[in-house]
């Protein structure tokens, strides 16, 4: 007989109902927001779809900034619900240009909602969030920010910035579980969601989640997933011990060292620092070299590089320095392994200088 | 500074992509099915909504058997997608009567799909699944079975019974995690789902999941939740070590001992054995006694009884003997604590005889 | 290739050195002692052997109270180190009689150390600890108390009682790990240990452990076992959340209900309540029935009874209500399963009355 | 009230008795030995002390090779038991010279036992094990090998080499728990241990452990520590999945790359490759630089270097590449961080060349 042994994942107890409220408060702390915090028991892409499904209805007009496939889907979900959506699409793999946003807003004074992704892990870019939000604020437009990748890696002061809905997931810079997500919902956003026609009785209904808020406990159909909630607590414990500012600073240092290393290697990062995310750094493979082959060569050293995805140009590679990877050891291994892969492909590069630059950045 | 200590839930590695196929095969074993097995990274209620959303379209005609709120929602989701749905609703807290199903099918020869819940944990009843499926088979009607509560507690031979879509969750009799679910999809069901008009790019799209099947790995947007997949493996390890038939037999014994105990106590179970589930046993509180007070009294002994929910009559209490609770110790504690609660409320009952009956059932 | 999957026990990080001191303080809280607290990285039997090896030397005279094999070994270890030891042995399976202790002390005014086990899990008895300690206090004799089984199940106020060395393990009533143990050492005990001839450089040397105290961190050869220390923290978290007094009261209630149940069953416990431990209850099997057969019959119900061990009379069975087992559900299952086993062996007993008695005890 | 939450280390079940035999067999596979395998529930230093205590008695003559404090203690423990011991001590931080061993054996034909440490993690050296064992074999002398640090990092074929007692711990190259250890005992060694005068009833008695072998299950006093045994299973699962030869090769590669990196940095390793262990690499700090300051500088990059310990020269630093650290990423970070620390202290070194050399070694 196959004997399974003991596994700590056996017999996990139910998550105590009275702790959902505490969890929500702790997430409010991460977001620096006094808005309502909703927990969604599914990956963050579901929370995003739920936001779109819950806001969308005929008569709603939205400006949707697209810098990755997620942005594209968001527009599609809004349209599915009957909304009128204008997508403005950035250059492939680049952040949106603030003038394009201003122009689009000026062109259509009837816009009710603006949606934008804060940082894209698909291409390593950062959108000019505070400038975009300022434009929306001036015009009284509600805002939806996809902060799934950015939360913990960039500062995100939801109330100060005036974000109506911010969606986050714990699985990236926060280093937590991937099976749940959370969002903040302002009073203005609730008014839009709860006006006539709100979908109900669906995983995509934020209106359903309001019941949860009312009694301070989980009130939805289906069984709560205890592993996800306990793992979220564990992640919050770590974040609170490290300090949110220190967590962001650690990601900024990793990004800065990665960029310094790549520059010294002779293959500078894809976008300038001001437009780059702190979570992954994209670098264009030299002409004539296939990213897949470079990734395979790095993989033989035990270092995981990945291709850019979505709308990013095909020759981008990504060096990941998110969460536990925002550390000297990983940053160094990423860059040196990339250099070794280039060498092996016959492309000269200065591994030496790259190591120096990374050490120097971290030693400052 | 708050020091979080070590928590085994920190830094869980990614789930290896090549193991999704293995997981699916193991679930196929549980379902005794060679149909395609899809994994959904959300609680089973989402898989049910996805089934309805993926099947529903104008022109589809469905007969929907309602024995709990889940059944009610299923009809609603089908209607939302444009389908024509006839609900047949059982008496509160009781299984559907087979004649009602036959009559409804005879009355409308254009029905394409029949949907039914196998066992209801809300009221502890079991629908006459094989008889219902036989009626559908004779008429060439596709079938959707919600086996979320029943899988592992009752035998469920998907291919032999001719079920087109069976939806399960690991969190009940299988004793596993709640943050994912699975379903089997027959060729006929795929044809219905993939015909023109299939929704795409949504958590509710089964058509999206077909891509997953094609390359044998996770291919959906969003990050896979490793804890859920590793915990599902742990549950399958245990089930395979115990044996699926032994697992079902253990639930049947727990149900039988609970019923014998309640009868001896002087408060027989709500439905006769042939119509009862193996997972929870519902019992009507004696007239004049509030279920809530009895539950509180049992709770003081550390024993958790619950109220019936949904369409079940308000005076039902439930004794849970699902998963790890399908054991002598829990069955005995449930019934004796219920007896002690009755006593405390001034209602006479025979705790003695109940204990005897449970011991005798388990000692046979 | 065999694929091991993820196991949370992989890659456990080192235990942070600065937390040993915190751990020791928390254990001091459990023992209500300001003595030095030493952590020993081995099961508590090793801590006991180390105490004997560290105290013993030619010229030391000890009175050793023997109520189980552990007591016997303790005397042997003292003798091995050169001490003169007088064992006083209780009746098999019974606590020591206080008059015997007084008599032995009176007979030999040169005794330096008195050693006694607080509660015996081998036979379920409790020695009259405070009376014994009073006798030693009056005579200025140092005392060693084996509180491995009793800690958490009985109150143990080390400083108030004037215990010089108390040895505990976390694996019984405290519900913690078994791979480490702890002891409190008074100033007087240190003086005895550190006087000329103290063994050094050995797992059995308490003098070595003093180095640990001096710098507040682990200072011994060998690698600290992180799992044990993290698991001890987890146990202390639970104990502090429940409250030490509540933990002791929970064990007292379990013992009391077990005894009431056995009495009602018609097979009273082995020793009267005043001489019984709160951790396990021993009961003599009726004449003519083999304990092993009764244990096997209970085992078929999934209930684990055990034989008495060591010096306990051969016909004793033990019902365990220690740690998580100190709960209504386990107490009830233990007694009813024992009753069912008696019945099956043809011995009449009143399972009914036993269940009643247990419910009544817990409902008070 | 402080709420401890759920911790997977709560409520760990007992280790099933029937699995000790399986564990022992799996360890026999690691050691490539058909000798009896004993499990000791304590860190490996206790197993070593037990070996000495169990072998030692008046009349026994031992040659004890000392290349670290552990070797020194081993001689002391043998002497404590009455044996006559000749220590031969290597130069500080260096392996023993084979001629010294031969000379000592020739000088005293009455030697019964030879003891040696295979690899020293205190100084990163490797003793010439097979040559030493050949000398003993020729003379019919029993051998004790401390393989605690080396097992998994170097090949160790116990039966082929003719080792009588090999002591191992899972906590180094095997990547397992530190709270237990194991040893192989040949028939000849048993004869020595069990001859008249064997200590009994002690953590230091191997004779006690024979009882364990006789009934194939744990038979010692005290509670088995389930966490340690389950964690050992997890480690063995990983090792068997990787393959013992691959595990050794991975350590050899890490050592080789570390040495190449240090040489290119301009600060070659302490001992030549043939005399170096695969587990840690020691390097002498340049004259005038304090190891402690260099360690602190590397620590600011998140890289942990350590001082040499024991008999190693005071200016040695150690780079650890044991277990999970036997990987490109850690080797690279170790060497570059050491280089950065040298730079910061004003000592020039070629970080560039070091990175190159490490990449080149791993890319071969």
Automatic annotation (TrEMBL), chains A, B, C, D:
Gene3D superfamilies: Aspartate Aminotransferase, domain 1, Type I PLP-dependent aspartate aminotransferase-like (Major domain). Pfam families: Aminotran_5 (PF00266). GO terms for molecular function: transaminase activity. The keyword Transferase applies. Residues 36-291 form the Aminotransferase class V domain. It comes from the Bacteria. Its cofactor is pyridoxal 5'-phosphate. SUPFAM superfamilies: PLP-dependent transferases (SSF53383). Keywords: Aminotransferase, Pyridoxal phosphate, Transferase. PANTHER family: ALANINE--GLYOXYLATE AMINOTRANSFERASE 1, AMINOTRANSFERASE CLASS V. Belongs to the class-V pyridoxal-phosphate-dependent aminotransferase family. This is Aspartate aminotransferase. It comes from Rhizobium hidalgonense.
């Amino acid at each position: 007989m196959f004997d399974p042994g003991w596994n700590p994942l056996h017999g996990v107890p139910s998550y105590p109902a009275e702790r959902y409220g505490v969890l929500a408060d702790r997430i409010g702390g991460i977001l620096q927001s006094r808005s309502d915090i909703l927990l969604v028991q599914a990956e963050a892409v579901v929370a995003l779809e739920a936001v779109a499904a819950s806001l969308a209805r005929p008569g709603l007009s939205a400006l949707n900034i697209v810098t990755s496939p997620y942005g594209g889907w968001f527009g599609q979900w809004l349209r599915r619900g009957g909304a009128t959506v204008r997508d403005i699409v950035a250059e492939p793999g680049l952040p949106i240009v603030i003038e394009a946003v201003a122009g689009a807003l000026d062109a259509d004074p009837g816009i009710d909602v603006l949606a934008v992704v804060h940082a894209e892990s698909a291409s390593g870019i950062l959108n000019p969030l505070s400038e975009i939000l300022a434009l929306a604020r001036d015009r009284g437009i509600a805002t939806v920010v996809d902060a799934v990748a950015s939360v913990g890696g960039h500062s995100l002061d939801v109330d100060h910035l005036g974000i109506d809905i911010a969606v986050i997931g714990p699985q990236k810079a926060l280093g937590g579980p991937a099976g749940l997500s959370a969002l903040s919902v302002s009073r203005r956003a609730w008014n839009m969601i709860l006006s006539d026609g709100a979908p109900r009785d669906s995983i995509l209904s934020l209106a359903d989640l309001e019941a949860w808020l009312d009694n301070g406990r989980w009130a939805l159909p289906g069984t709560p997933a205890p592993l996800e909630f306990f793992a979220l607590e564990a992640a919050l414990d770590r974040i609170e011990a490290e300090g949110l500012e220190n967590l962001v600073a650690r990601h900024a240092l990793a990004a800065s060292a990665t960029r310094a290393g790549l520059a010294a290697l002779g293959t500078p990062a894809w976008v300038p620092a001001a437009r780059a995310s702190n979570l992954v750094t994209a670098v264009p493979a030299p002409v004539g070299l296939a990213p897949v082959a470079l990734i395979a060569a790095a993989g033989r050293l035990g270092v995981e590089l990945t291709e850019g995805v979505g709308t990013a140009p095909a020759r981008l590679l990504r060096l990941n320095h998110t969460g536990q990877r925002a550390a000297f050891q990983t940053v160094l291994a990423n860059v040196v392994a990339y250099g070794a892969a280039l060498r092996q492909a016959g492309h000269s590069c200065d591994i030496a200088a790259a190591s120096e630059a990374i050490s120097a950045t971290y030693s400052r």
